[in-house]
Write a structure and sequence with these properties.
This protein has 213 residues and is mainly α. The chain is built from ten helices and no strands. Helix 3 packs across helix 5 (92-115) and helix 9 packs across helix 10 (190-212).
């Protein structure tokens, strides 16, 4: 269950459409600054904007929808609890995706450690539904079945990538983050980001050639 914050501060007596529209027009960074100052409405707007993306990126790593929701909840709890640590000059998207990625990696390490299986096998299992072709193209039933099968193949191929390439490919090609954001999240320079993404794409291309030729 997602945390719902009710306003108890000193904002307008009535949170009408005008007030909520004002929040809609704010940038992520402006909303986070308001959150740091105590605005729970601003935090709620950030949850609305980022919940689907955060759940999505976690799910792509662990292939567990219920656990993905739980970890995403923890991500937002940490954002709220540690809001005063947010650097006002930093991108909010970079900050929250870093938190999500760290918690997800902790989950993967926990699963591998307790399942007593090789990490590669664990990643194959966890990543079996990850795919680059996630959008419904509104095609016929047979084509959709083929697309789902291709998604599974691509997911398995991504899971087999070395971690440094996998992280870069997922953040850039699946989540659509900029090269700069990926670099900030992974703490590597821009040139390294591009090199990892290009290398990851080449490995995937080779693995997928039998399926897409």
């Amino acid at each position: 269950m997602w945390v719902v914050y009710s306003h108890t501060g000193s904002s307008p007596n009535s949170l009408g459409a005008e007030w909520m529209n004002a929040l809609d027009s704010r940038t992520d960074e402006e909303l986070m600054n308001l959150c740091v100052e105590g605005s729970e409405e601003a935090f709620g707007e950030l949850v609305k904007r980022y919940k689907p993306r955060i759940v999505s990126v976690i799910y792509r790593y662990i292939n567990d929808p219920i656990r993905a929701q739980e970890i995403a909840q923890e991500v937002f709890v940490r954002v709220y609890v540690h809001r005063e640590k947010y650097r006002r000059t930093a991108r909010f998207s970079t900050w929250i995706f870093t938190i999500a990625l760290n918690l997800t990696k902790n989950e993967i390490r926990h699963r591998v450690r307790h399942s007593r299986v090789m990490s590669l096998d664990a990643l194959k299992e966890m990543g079996s539904s990850v795919g680059l072709f996630l959008r419904d193209r509104s095609r016929g039933p047979e084509e959709k079945v083929e697309e789902r099968e291709l998604q599974e193949v691509v997911g398995s191929a991504i899971a087999e990538l070395p971690a440094k390439y996998r992280d870069a490919v997922i953040l850039r090609d699946i989540e659509g983050l900029s090269y700069e954001e990926v670099g900030e999240i992974l703490s590597v320079p821009g040139g390294t980001v591009r090199s990892r993404i290009n290398r990851g794409r080449l490995i995937l291309k080779k693995k997928l050639e039998p399926y897409v030729s």
